[in-house]
Amino acid sequence: KQEVTQIPAALSVPEGENLVLNCSFTDSAIYNLQWFRQDPGKGLTSLLLIQSSQREQTSGRLNASLDKSSGRSTLYIAASQPGDSATYLCAVSPFPGSYQLTFGKGTKLSVIP
Amino acid sequence: DADVTQTPRNRITKTGKRIMLECSQTKGHDRMYWYRQDPGLGLRLIYYSFDVKDINKGEISDGYSVSRQAQAKFSLSLESAIPNQTALYFCATSDWGGGRALNEQFFGPGTRLTVL
Prior knowledge:
The complex is a heterodimer. By secondary structure, chain A is mainly beta. Chain A contains no helices and eleven strands. Chain B has no helices and eleven strands. In chain B, the strands form two sheets. In chain B, strands 2, 4, 5, 6, 9, 10 and 11 form a seven-stranded mixed β-sheet that branches. The relative contact order of chain B is 0.33. The model of chain B has no long low-confidence stretch (mean pLDDT about 90). The interface of A and B includes residues 89 and 91 of A.
């Protein structure tokens, strides 16, 4: 059974710092990996989706990398801002057309002004 | 306007009551999902639907039922609510058509349900 882990559970950084969020998964046979952002009491916003054949995806100040063989993904946030404060979740999908998304429990990020 | 909407956004109810949570989408996606989120447990899949006539149980379907009224509408019912169904409930959609199989899911804003 696929398990997804995100460590640390919470992270606090000063504004302007570059940071990395980690996601690891136990079964490397994945189709893709999705990073989400969740603001308190709100829904999940899809940030980046990275296919298993890709190494990186970028959107603005965000860069997601994937090392499928080692079961790891990182989300890099450049020049962090207080507005980046949220919980970040990763989720993996096993094969094309699958309904399954296995989620990590998230990393709660606080960016201190 | 949001692509995936959920109503109500907040609901407080009492044990034993029947309630319905509704989800609508304008993304034109065939697939729809219901999840619940609990602190420390993450998101868990309750039901999913590939189209109007194809509905399937997820990881934690006991105590819940669903109805897919149209491609754009998917509702979740708690027939007799109990306190451990207190959670944040999310609807999601994904695309499947024309050979695309990205599996990318798009989420609604959530319904916070409290069962007293």
